[in-house]
Design goal:
Number of domains: 2
Oligomer: single chain
CATH topology of the largest domain: Protein-Tyrosine Phosphatase, Chain A
CATH architecture of the largest domain: Alpha-Beta Complex
Strand order of the largest sheet: 8-7-9-6-10
Distance between the termini: 42 Å
Radius of gyration: 22 Å
Largest sheet: 5 strands, parallel
Order of helices and strands: HEHEEHEEHHHEHEHEHHEHE
Strand content: 5-15%
Length: about 290
C-alpha cells in the first residue's frame, strides 16, 4: 500500500473515509464537487458539465491511481476504501472543513444529492441526460451558451487544468476543436489526442487533428527570446503559402460550424503558431478572431 503524496488525493480519501469508506461513483463526484465549491480552501479538482452533472476527469484518474496503490477498490457502481483513518493524513484545517461538510450534507444521497447540485449549480446540468427529473428545460437554457456569431477562436492549454480548458470551450459555445499540433501528444493529463478527442466529443464538441498545420518539433528547439519566436513564425508564415488546401478546409469548417477553435500548447498566443494561422485566416477570409 502506497500512501498518496498529492493533497487532492489525500482529500479524496479523507472524504471517502468520513462517509464510512464506501460511496457510489456518482455520489463521490457530487460530494467532492460540493466540497470544493463550498468548503475547501484548496480547489483540489475542476469539474465540467457531463452526462450526470458535475464530473472531474482528474478525480476519475486519481481513483484508478489510488486503486493501483492499494488504497481503494473501484467497482462498477461504487468505490470502497481499503485504507481507513485517512482523514488523519490531511491538515487540521482540512479535517475541520471535511467534518463541517459531512455534518451539513451527510443526509443528501441519491436523487436528493443530484437535485441539490443541479438546482444550486445549474450550469453543471446543461449536458445531463437526466436533468428533467430535477430542473426545467427553461431554467437550464439560461445557462447554455448561445453565442452564434461566426468566429475563429484560439486556445492554448499551458498552465490550465483539463476541466478549465474544457469549460472555456463549452462557455464559448465551440462546435469543433481543431488540433493544430504536429504531434498531438502531451505529458500533461488530458491533452494527448485520444483523451482530448474522447472528452470533447462526449461534451458534444467535434474534434479534428490537422498535423499538416503543425511545426516540426526540431524547429522549436532553442527558442529563448521573442526574436527567436518571431523568426520561427516568419518562416512558418511563408510555409502557409503552400498549405492552401488546409487553410481552405479550416475556413469551410468555420463556414459550416460557426464556432471553431484551433488549439495548441502555449498559453500566450504570441508564442504559438496558432496565432499565425488565425492571422492568415483573418487576412484571406476576413474571419473574426478571438483568443481564449
Amino acid at each position: 500500500m502506497k500512501k498518496p503524496t498529492y493533497k487532492r488525493q489525500k482529500a479524496l480519501l479523507a472524504l471517502l473515509d468520513i462517509f464510512g469508506g464506501r460511496l457510489s461513483k456518482l455520489e463521490l463526484q457530487k460530494y467532492m464537487f460540493l466540497y470544493v465549491e463550498e468548503f475547501s480552501y484548496d480547489k483540489h479538482y475542476g469539474f465540467v458539465p457531463y452526462h450526470f452533472g458535475s464530473f472531474s476527469y482528474e478525480l476519475y484518474k486519481d481513483l484508478h491511481t489510488l486503486e493501483r496503490n492499494g488504497l481503494l477498490k473501484v467497482y462498477e457502481h461504487h468505490i470502497k476504501s481499503e485504507y481507513r483513518g485517512s482523514i488523519e493524513d490531511v491538515s487540521r484545517d482540512e479535517q475541520n472543513s471535511i467534518t463541517r461538510f459531512f455534518m451539513q450534507h451527510q443526509n443528501l444521497r441519491g436523487d436528493d444529492l443530484i437535485g441539490y447540485v443541479y438546482n444550486k449549480y445549474p450550469y453543471y446540468a446543461i449536458n445531463s441526460k437526466i436533468y428533467n427529473k430535477f430542473i426545467s428545460t427553461e431554467e437550464l437554457n439560461k445557462y447554455r451558451a448561445r453565442n452564434a456569431d461566426t468566429t475563429l477562436y484560439t486556445i492554448g492549454y499551458e498552465g490550465k487544468k483539463f476541466e478549465t480548458y474544457l469549460n472555456q470551450l463549452i462557455e464559448s459555445n465551440i462546435k469543433i476543436l481543431v488540433d493544430v499540433r504536429k504531434n498531438a501528444h502531451s505529458m500533461k493529463y488530458g491533452f494527448s489526442k485520444k483523451t482530448l478527442q474522447g472528452a470533447v466529443e462526449n461534451l458534444g464538441i467535434k474534434y479534428f487533428h490537422m498535423p499538416n498545420l503543425g511545426i516540426e518539433s526540431e524547429n522549436r528547439k532553442m527558442l529563448q527570446t521573442k526574436k527567436d519566436y518571431q523568426k520561427l513564425f516568419d518562416n512558418y508564415e511563408k510555409t502557409l503559402a503552400y498549405k492552401t488546401n488546409e487553410l481552405e478546409y479550416l475556413n469551410s469548417t468555420i463556414e459550416v460550424e460557426n464556432r471553431v477553435a484551433i488549439t495548441c500548447f502555449e498559453k500566450d498566443v504570441s508564442d504559438c503558431h496558432r496565432g499565425v494561422i488565425a492571422k492568415k485566416i483573418h487576412q484571406i477570409y476576413n474571419r473574426g478572431i478571438k483568443h481564449l
